[in-house]
Amino acid sequence: MDLLSGELEVEKHVKYILSIEKKKDSFESVAMEHLRMNGAYWGLTTLDLLGKIETVDQDEVISWVMQCQHESGGFAGNVGHDPHILYTLSAVQVLALFDKLDVLDVDKLSDCILWLNFMEKNAATFSPCLLDRKLDICGLQNEDGSFSGDIWGEVDTRFSYIAICCLSLLHRLDKINTEKAVEYIVSCQNLDGGFGCTPGGESHAGQIFCCVSALAITGSLYHIDKDLLGWWLCERQLKSGGLNGRPEKLPDVCYSWWVLTSLILIDRVHWIDKVKLARFILDCQDKENGGISDRPDDAVDVFHTYFGVAGLSLLEYPGLKAIDPAHALPVDVINKIFFDRK
Amino acid sequence: MTENKDSDDIAFHQLKQLERILECDPLINEVGFIHPSQFAALDDEIVGSDKSVAHSIPQSVDEFISTNLDANDLQHDSSIFWIRDHKLAISTEALFHLYNAAKHAFMAALTQQKMVDSLCRKTDKSLNKKVTDDNTGPDIFLESEVMNHSKALLLLSCDNGTAWNSRKLICSKKQCLSLLMDELLFSALILSYAPKSESAWSHRRWVIKAIDGKYPKFEDVVERESELVEKIAERSKMNYRAWNHRCWLITYMTKEQVINQLQNSRKWAELHVGDSSCFHYRQLLLQRMLKHCSRFDVYHVRKEELEWNEMLIKRYIGREALWVHRRFLSQLGSRPFRSEAEKEPYVVSNQDNINMNNFISSEMQLLHSCLSISDNDFEDIQSQGVFAASYILWMFKFFNLRQQLHNSQLTVLEDMPRVMGELKMALNKLCPEKTLLWEDQVISRIM
After folding, report:
1. Structure confidence at residue B55 (pLDDT)
2. What DSSP state is assigned to residue A24?
3. From the candidates A127, A159, A271, which should be mutated to test the interface with B, based on the most B CB atoms within 10 A?
4. How far apart are CA B355 and CA B264, in angstroms?
């Protein structure tokens, strides 16, 4: 990896990320405002990995994050929007980056997540009076151990990961039935060793990251046949060095994160060529204006910039902070949460 | 300042036009965003195409009157909107302002609606118990505002969850079947230009769950839904969200539908051999179909699928999706049923051993036919060699488990060290970048 040292355009990536906030004059940028919370997480984590998080106004960020909190406890993607578990994790992660988890009403938030796990199966057909109750409490594990993303009942292993990761960061894993949650995740494993969104769902590297990380956080990795899953994952590496997310797909920088974290967590990362992967990520940089794209010469965005930098961090690229593969936060942030508890 | 206000007014006016267009033609089934300079080309295309379909929406003033629509309402700025034959094009130049106008109008209506709702809840009497004779209450008006604005907004930003949710909320309050069916039309429109929109697919699942048990011909809904996925998958290659939706539908299918789907998807898969998702769909259908079948049936269905797959492998050289499917088939009939097998000890018959021996022998033949040509420099032919050799290695690793489980006598496996040596040599030569994987797997197999 040392051979490639100096090729990462740190200053330009920092400049690129800071510029995103100012660009609000194009349709493409405003039409994504409903997921600004995810964008904040991607941008800020990248800055932290690059050692430049102090370039942003912390108070401004935190006050905006808190404005996105719904009365139920969950967070929305932006002010005035509906809460969803997808944005709730990002909000918690952003607060963790600034060591500000203490601004949260932790019990209220974890109750809300818990409730997402206890919703009636037929959330689709509930009556308006039930709906009112749900809007008031909002909290999301179902009977089978799965989690819904919000009160509307869609179930996905991504939401299981988010709930588990969030509660772990808040020291509230004891609130849910982790045994049931793990049982549901394991039921989504396929014969190829991978995982899908729901039982029987096609294996996808993004879903695999969620399932493997959730199992790692709950100490349940023994459910995985590591050789079988590791084999599937390392077949994602293509001749270019880049990784794809499923068979027959093109390589994409974002899978540097999803595939690599999973391989690390199951201890099979030596089955891929790490230097070639780092080379691929570095080739996806916009060397002039900063930012990283999905593939060489495509347009950059904050999503791929984060996954590229986080991937390089996992590959121990010189000069980057280390990142925790399961919680998707810098290791020093995680250490503060788990080892410096007041 | 005044300039801003003027442009806001213009944008709001354009939004009204868009909403009118959507309201007047609920059958719009395709939308696209194009540069206004291309509008003329669209007109030419229409002139050149079959004119007989051009009458499905009112084209003349007479028709407007006969269909009870106000002609003035459909007047729109033709430099921004283009509409014909239920196809709508919106100028890319207008998107930014149009989006802002839609967002503000939607958010304002939603806030007001929530206020009225919470007021009703506090006073504990619902202003809109049912759509009764009084159709003019403030809540009814606000609901239609939310529906109109969210429609325009979603057309411009398809994954705005808040806008989708506002529609779900109104639908669940009204409990009206036709309203739910309209949501299927509308989300299909969104998918026409955003086939990967997760929110739109999720919205459809919500609607389908809501009409299950209420719609008289639910089977038809499932059928049409499956057709929609196929139509979209045709245009949008390897669409995970679309195929995931189709897989989800299987639980709602009747036995006959599952068999039909297996037949139909076979033709589709032959024409799209790189679309791994379609093969995954078949895998689920096969598992569903064979769930309560005898070992004999499983054997024959598997054999047929294996032969079909081998034919495709030989016709389309170096397609990963075909080999991934074969891995699944090599396991079909054993592992998926392991939990059942554990309950009742599986007795391996002589016939099982013969079948297994025959199967492995034919797989070895397939391997050799693929490896014999892999000296060739063509990339596809080399890939074929890697896929074949790694398939065999993968399968043996699996049969190791199976052998322990069932204690079968497999004569083909006696020569294992030689086979492993051969696989290792082929893989290291054809795919040296994964040497560590091959080493580990071969060692763990021999041990």
Report:
1. 35
2. -
3. A271
4. 29
B33: β partners? B90
Same domain (yes/no): B11, B137: yes
- Among residues of chain B, what percentage have pLDDT more than 90? 58
Q: Does residue B162 lie within any of the structural domains?
A: no
Over the stretch B48-61, which tens digit does the pLDDT of each residue have?
544 433 333 434 33
Does A89 have pLDDT greater than 50? yes
Residue B61 lies in a domain: yes
- Cα atoms in the 13 Å half-sphere on the side-chain side of B232: 29
Q: Which amino acid is it at B244?
A: N
Q: Are residues B12 and B27 in the same domain?
A: yes
Provide the pLDDT for residue A119: 53
How far off is chain A from B86, nearest CA to CA, in Å?
25
With vertex at residue A86, the alpha carbon angle to CA A142 and CA A47, rounded to the nearest 5 degrees, is 145
- Element spanning A323, H or E: strand A323-324
Domain for residue B163, yes or no?
no
Q: Are residues B275 and B325 in the same domain?
A: yes
Determine, yes or no, domain membership for B340. no
Q: Give the residue on A whose Cα is nearest the Cα of B111.
A: A80
Whether ipTM tops 0.85, in short, is yes
Please, what are the domains in chain A? Answer: 12-31+220-342 (1.50.10.20), 32-103 (no CATH), 105-187 (no CATH)
Give the separation between CA B160 and CA B164, rounded to whole angstroms.
Answer: 7
Statement to judge: residues B16 and B150 lie in one domain: yes
By mean pLDDT, which of A111-115, A142-146, A167-171 is the weakest? Answer: A111-115
CA distance B274 to chain A (A): 6
How far apart, in Å, are the Cα atoms of B85 and each of A60, A68, B42, B44?
50, 42, 12, 14
Same domain, B351 and B301: no
Question: Looking at beta carbons, which residues of chain A come within 8 Å of B168?
Answer: 152
Whether B394 and B409 share a structural domain: yes
Asked whether the beta carbons of A211 and A187 are under 8 A apart, the reply is no
User: Residue B269 belongs to what domain range?
Assistant: 253-333
Q: What share of chain B is helix, strand, coil (3-state, %, to 5)?
A: 75, 5, 20
Place of tokens 């051979």: A3
Average pLDDT over residues B71-88: 79
For B78, B302, B325, the CA distances from B331, given in Å and listed in that order, are: 59, 10, 10
Local structure of A195: helix, strand or coil: strand
Interface contact B394-A270, CB threshold 8 A? no
What is the tally of structural domains in chain B?
A: 4
- B23-32, B42-51, B143-152, B271-280: the lowest-pLDDT one: B42-51
Q: Are residues B257 and B240 in the same domain?
A: no
